[in-house]
Amino acid sequence: MDTAKSDQILARLMALHPKKIDLSLGRMHRILDRLGNPEKKLPPVVHVAGTNGKGSTVAILRAIAEAAGHRVHVYTSPHLVRFSERIRLCGNLIEEEALATLLERVEQAADGDQITFFEVTTAAALLAFSEIPADLCILEVGLGGRLDATNVVDKPAAVGITPVSLDHQQFLGDTLQQIAAEKAGIIKPGSPLVVGPQKKVGLEVIEKAASQADVKPYIFDQSWHVESKADGSGLLYEDWKSVLDLPQPPLVGAHQIKNAAMAIALAHAQKAVAIPDAAIKAGLGWVRWPARLQQLHNTLFNAKLPEGSDLWLDGGHNPAAADVVRTFLQGVDPIERSVTLVLGMMGTKDVTGYLQPLSGLVNRVIAVPIPDETGAASPGELAAAATDIGINGIVAKDVEAALNAVSETAHPDRPPFVLIAGSLYLAGTVLKDAGLLPT
Q1: Residue 151 φ then ψ, to 5°
Q2: Residue 62 contacts residue 417 (beta carbons within 8 Å)
Q3: Nearest in space to 224 (alpha carbons), one of 262, 255, 278
Q4: What span, in angstroms and rounded, lies between the C-alpha atoms of 45 and 129?
Q5: Contact 235, 227 (CB under 8 A)
Q6: Which of 267, 290, 297, 312 lies closest to 93, judged by CA?
């Protein structure tokens, strides 16, 4: 079968996309009704919203549940390289033939009506999840929560809200309170709610929404706690159910400890499947989540750099993600290493807000375009934004050219430390070119 068939169907469906995104559940309910309401025939659902950390939390929860022997369906977005990464059936990425068939069914149900790309993909995922038996289904919210296409499940087994920060203001509102209210729209009466670390104003909004739904939330640092061991060998977790001494998850960054704890709290809050402590320990040991502070080894990009260089990749794209990168870069010795940020971002993102936390840690920004993304910020704009806050900013035609520039100016006694960052779209291009397809 032509492996591009699903892409061809998606291209046709894109033509139905409204000229302006209007967050609404009306279109979604209509198409699901035509498909026989698959959202009512799902395995028990864990529904996860938030601005930062929800993808990692989903990946860790999936690893934990699978380590307990459960079959798990997972829906995430966006994809990095291939669309099939969004739909995972019982642990495996959906096969091309099955995906094409699903999309054709969704296309037929759409019957020429306006429908967004995300609604199409969500309908296809729910259809697949309703027809293949599994023990658990994890849905990651795409945008916001209240009016997100995933918010069609009446009574999830558990609901999670990871840290909320400013992002997608054009759709969700200009204040943290407005955005938190949109995220809190996934809270359902009777569904346990786990709340990750929040700023005070956001937490107040979430707590009010929980109270209105008559739900008692499990809140970070109130109902559950986590801390790293002093020797860095692991983490200590405690909640209303267990006290656990756990291994350090392989995902890099201090923030991943809280994401892991969030996943454990969700595993404990849901009552649909049994997840013993041994599965939590095992799952933490093998979880993977590409393009989140991922170190690259032995790729064509590494070959562009001098021996002893470090090359990392991260898809974070907002100020909260930059705070995570800042904490990570604080571990790099500025005397021994020169730090270069190869930066590509979408034009709707807060470039200055992303770069500001990195001032003083990054020696140079090399701005690059994002291939095939018409909405990407121009490298000139990115470089100028870096220069405006005191970071040396230059441009390059692509990532390879940027790495060549790093190599040409590298000090023989200071191996470069390079982070490619600013966009999941850029990260996906790098992984594709490097032959590191997510599996």
Answers
A1: -85, 55
A2: no
A3: 262
A4: 10
A5: yes
A6: 290
Beta 87-89 vs 72-75: how paired, if at all?
antiparallel
Question: Which pLDDT belongs to residue 371?
Answer: 92
Q: Give the pLDDT confidence of 133-147 residue by residue, as tens digits.
A: 999 999 999 988 899
pTM of the predicted structure, to 2 decimals: 0.88
The per-residue pLDDT for range 355-368, each reduced to its tens digit, is 999 999 999 999 99
| HSE of 164, CA atoms in CB hemisphere, 13 A | 32
Strand order from edge to edge, sheet including 234-238: 225-228, 234-238, 243-247
**If pLDDT is split at 50, 70 and 90, which confidence band does 168 have?**
very low
SS (H, E, C) the chain: CCCCHHHHHHHHHHCCCCCCCCCCCHHHHHHHHHCCCHHHCCCCEEEEECCCCHHHHHHHHHHHHHHCCCCEEEECCCCCCCHHHHEEECCEECCHHHHHHHHHHHHHHHCCCCCCHHHHHHHHHHHHHHHCCCCEEEEECCCCCCCCCCCCCCCCCEEEECCCCCCCHHHHCCCHHHHHHHHHHHCCCCCCEEECCCCHHHHHHHHHHHHHCCCCCEEECCCEEEEECCCCCEEEEECCCCEEEEECCCCCCCHHHHHHHHHHHHHHHCCCCCCCHHHHHHHHHHCCCCCCCEECCCCCCHHHCCCCCEEEECCCCCHHHHHHHHHHHCCCCCCCCEEEEEECCECCCCHHHHHHHHCCCCCEEEECCCCCCCCECCHHHHHHHHHHCCCEEEECCCHHHHHHHHHHCCECCECEEEEEECCHHHHHHHHHHCCCCCC
**pLDDT tens, residue by residue, 98-115:** 999 999 999 999 888 888
What is the tens place of the pLDDT at every residue in 353-412?
Answer: 999 999 999 999 999 999 988 899 999 999 999 999 999 999 999 999 999 999 999 988
Q: Cα(44)–Cα(48) distance, rounded to whole angstroms?
A: 13
pLDDT digits (tens, 9 = 90+) for 248-288: 887 877 778 999 999 999 999 999 999 999 999 999 988 88
Segment 237-255, tens digit of pLDDT = 999 999 999 988 878 777 7
Phi, psi of 259 (to 5 degrees): -65, -40
- Please give the share of the chain, as a percent, with pLDDT higher than 90: 72
